[in-house]
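Collaborator request log, item 7. Partner lab (contact: R.S.) asked for a structural prediction of long-chain-fatty-acid--CoA ligase to inform their binding assays.
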Amino acid sequence: MLDVSVVVSGILILLYHLGKFYSPYFWQDVVAFFRIVKFGYKCHRCVYRKPPITLLDLFLAKVQKHPEKPLVLFGDETYSYRDIDRRSSQLARVLRDHVGLEEGETVAVFLKNVPAYLWVWMGLEKIGSAMACINYNIRAKSLLHALSSCKAKVLLTTPDFKAAIEDVLPTLKNEGVQVFFLSEDSPTEGVEALLGQIQSSSAEPLPISFRANITAESTSLYIFTSGTTGLPKAAILSQRKMLIASNLSGHLGARPKDIVYIPLPLYHSVALLVGVGGCLEAGSTCVLRPKFSVSEFWNDCRRYRVSLILYVGEMMRYLCNVKKTDSDRDHCVRMAIGNGMRADVWKEFLHRFGPVQIYEIYGATEGNVGFFNTTGKVGAVGRSHFLYKKLAKYEIIKYDVDKDEPVRGKNGHCIPVTPGETGLFVSKITGLAPFYGYAGDRQKSEKKILRDVFTKGDCYFNSGDLLMEDQEGFLYFKDRVGDTFRWKGENVATTEVENILAPLRFIQEVNVYGVPVPGHEGKTGMAAICLKKGHSFDGQKLYAHAKDLLPAYAIPRFVRIQDTLEITGTFKQIKSQLVKEGFDPAVISDPLFFLDDSEECYMPLTPQIFSTIAERKLKL
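Returned to partner:
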């Protein structure tokens, strides 16, 4: 008589091999699915308790568990969990008692990567206030718009940004925004230095009653993303979403003993949530770098014994482009989490720097569905399978790039693409996958919602991204649609650049778009310009104007002079053909110029210069 255990074992082995035969990733998908379910249940259980368990509570638990453990390494400075906890309590008291901040109000931070970012964040959590993370590269109109859209009551910054603050200070005062420097002295009249009061304030724990009204859906953060309006949009992150994002690195295998290297700006969600938030959730240590440095990257990793790094694709390309050394594999890095890494860079990075486990992730800050590549499939941003689709409803639909809209069938509904075909990624808005939208003008949120996609009345989040799913179910990022492109790891809104360049005296019209450059991630900026009658192109003036008012990554690298700019019947500028033609003088008869940093001017783009760019001999 057959042993039952033997029969059962045989059936299980058969099922395993059948699954592997029909789908090589079947069991990986099953394991990944149940891990996601467990991950989601853990987060749901935390935030929907009364009172909810938030990221702040997880941080305070780590303070109790290991108060002296380093949380932040910054140059030669070390800040323990207790240090950040105490300083955050001091700040919270000053904001409540001296500044008059109330629960639910918003504080904007205009800071570089400094330890203060952490204690300001935790301090605001302790009194139930939201933090708006402002990109410190923006100025003037964009800065004012960012502050206004999230209804900031207070702006915290440092004297590093004295000029930028003084430029908008009169307007801020008129709008009732209080501005403070996190320093001992203030170089600006009308701006108070707050650090002295913070240091002399009580560091005792704050009562929970100060944040008594916090729920899972309370706004915790505003993280700004460039949009097609040309001005920053404040994506709303709830306590629930913040906790999920902060648990991501732990879900992917980060451990309490990890040292996490963060050279990306903290106004980015990857740096703040996956990086710092992940450390607070796991109880690990982060190394803050004021700014990414290709020459110091591996030195820092060796110095601090870094085991986990955060990246954007362009950063990894820089690392692969530097001269090879004998110490390339002399490091402790075992994991890398980020997005935007090109397949060829991915392969080169692994070949050169060793077997680092790379976890490419995909998801908009304001999005409701994301992916992560846990299989190691080079170039993929994630994997689509029937189990995950039971949890998250998403689809890739046909998209007309020239018309800048989804393709709809005779019934008015969108059409899914076939495997191997590129289309627009959309995700259904549900109770489990909500879309919180943007602060401020409701129309901005509405523009990100597609309705009647597959059935009448349904709603989907429009990612603005073109993705492709291959025959095996792996997903690949292809491009951005509309007016936004990525360069140097940053989203660039073409409308914003156009609005800044247009006031120049010799410009009649300007159309800004992104063009691909050999050997570079994303697209760099190019401006098609129609000159005013009687005026000539002034490359020196354009350079000076752009340098003063735009972040470096948003300054167009190429200029094309045209007699007229082509528009649609609804007066929208046509970019698709310009993008296709790029900046090749052999294809374009119009005068072309390129940004020569050494000359601080836009110079004529000759076939010889084009060749040096195409052959990657000239860096952009």
